[in-house]
Amino acid sequence: MIEQTKALTLSSVRFQESSLIVHIYTERFGRRDYIIKGAFSKKSNKASFYQPLNLLELQVYEQPNKNLQMIKEVRIDHPLLSFRIQPRKSMILTFLTEFLEKVLKDDEIGNSELFAFLTESLLSLDAMNENYNCFTLQFMIRMSHFLGIGIHSGKMLLEETEVSAHIDPALVEAVDQLIVKDYHEAPSFNLYTRRILMDKILSFYELQIQSFGKMKTLEVLRNVGNPFKKH
Questions:
Q1: What gap in Å lies between CA 10 and CA 24, rounded to an integer?
Q2: pLDDT digits over 104-160, tens only?
Q3: What is the DSSP secondary structure assignment for residue 210, as one 8-state letter?
Q4: How far is CA 60 from CA 53, 84, 126, 166, in A?
Q5: CATH class of the domain whose range is 83-223
Q6: How much is the pTM?
Q7: Which ranges of the chain have pLDDT less than 70?
């Protein structure tokens, strides 16, 4: 049956000579894997549609019992232009792609509220020209609520992840600010504070999601161009 849905590309892998297997999160059906035949043929530019975190509009042949689905038509729903030309945003995109691959599991039922959150978050980042050093922190905090492991306060986060009995009240306040502030009104923290908060949030995910593991792209963020560096 041909169905229409909005979608978000997660990742892709080349298959045989000219095809592509794409991992996509769809608004209506949750996570799906699609095979794109002829994606790399000389007469086609199909592969360009499936760059990480592209926001798409799809017509698909929806067959719930198949591991690999097929796409009939595809178009870019919202072009995220700044992600492709700004190196710091490109590194954030790489980090978010790995993060979403870890937390968005196979699902037969879509979640329109989650999809709206993902779309609105990416569009917000695309529109921001400055002061987005805390974007990934805010994004992961907000995402936790859609996964049933919500980070509700700084005190709660630090109690879950702190190995010592002492909880720094300044860090509690910092997390609370991240929770209540909009992306465009993000607080300005120094590099040291942002790194501690990143480690705490990732530790929380590791504790709550057994398969989460370590983020390979974290060191890329920290070592290449230092995207957490304060303006």
A1: 5
A2: 987 667 899 999 999 999 999 999 988 898 999 999 999 999 999 999 999 999 999
A3: T
A4: 18, 27, 27, 53
A5: mainly alpha
A6: 0.91
A7: 42, 107-108, 164-165, 223-231
Q: Are 71 and 60 contacting, i.e. CB atoms less than 8 angstroms apart?
A: yes
Tokens matching residue 66: 């198949």
Residues listed for the chain: 231
Q: Tokens 């209540």 map to which residue?
A: 180
Q: In the chain, how many H helices and how many E strands?
A: 8, 5
Helix (H) / strand (E) element for 203: namely: helix 191-208
Q: What is the CA radius of gyration of the chain?
A: 19
Q: What are the domain boundaries of the chain?
A: 2-78, 83-223
Say how far apart CA 220 and CA 222 lie, in whole Å.
Answer: 5
Question: 76 forms bridges with which residues in the sheet?
Answer: 56
Buried b (16+ CB within 10 A) or exposed e, 54-78: bbbebebebeeeeeebebeebeeee
Domain spanning 2-78, CATH architecture: Beta Barrel (2.40)
> Residue 34: which of 57, 50, 51 has the closest Cα?
50
Alpha-carbon gap, residue 207 to 193, rounded angstroms: 21
CA 225, 227, 231 angle in degrees (round to 5)? 105
Query: Can you read off the two tokens belonging to residue 187?
Result: 């607080």
At what angle are helices 135-146 and 169-180 packed, to 10 degrees?
70
- Beta carbons of 91 and 224 less than 8 angstroms apart: yes
